[in-house]
Write a structure and sequence with these properties.
mainly alpha, 2 domains, two-stranded antiparallel ribbon, 7 helices, globular
Length: 157
């Protein structure tokens, strides 16, 4: 969320609170002044936190899951590994730890370069000398890695 968006949201909320408060006849108000001030301070805090810390980008999380489902789940559905002779290369936490793929950097490297029967999803030179473009951006690879680690942490349930 940009600072401009935060100010715009705060202004709209403030106007709607004041409009709701002043639209009613005196003594018949929906909101007392204390309630309006409490709502304004809560809203101000929330918007300020979003400006300072940034709001979570839910689209990146969805992208990680969607890209995993589209490109990885064929072999790694439910965290498993359907590739022959790769039963110890699952995406469960124990196997990730044993195989040294327990950081975002290591997972991203594996996704980009591939290994064994797993294809590379980053830019690479084909056996015929053709440059194959990357299938995922860096942000998408990190989102997939985050999705895998989140699922591994919860046992793929």
């Amino acid at each position: 969320m940009t600072p401009f968006m935060a100010v715009a949201i705060l202004s709209i909320q403030l106007l709607s609170l004041v409009a709701g408060w002043s639209a009613n006849a005196p003594g018949n108000c929906r909101h007392g002044i204390r309630e309006v001030l409490a709502e304004m301070s809560t809203l101000t805090f929330a918007v300020s936190a979003a400006v300072v810390f940034g709001s979570p980008d839910l689209s990146v999380a969805a992208t990680g899951m969607e890209n995993f489902q589209a490109s990885c789940a064929g072999c790694h559905a439910g965290g498993g590994n359907t590739f022959p002779f790769s039963s110890k290369k699952t995406l469960f936490q124990g196997d990730l730890d044993k195989n040294g793929v327990n950081t975002v950097e290591a997972m991203s490297n594996l996704i980009l370069k591939g290994k064994g029967g797993m294809p590379a999803y980053g830019e690479f030179m084909s056996q015929k000398g053709n440059m194959i473009p990357a299938r995922f951006t860096e942000a998408e690879v990190i989102a997939i890695s985050d999705f895998v680690f989140d699922q591994a942490e919860h046992g793929w349930k």
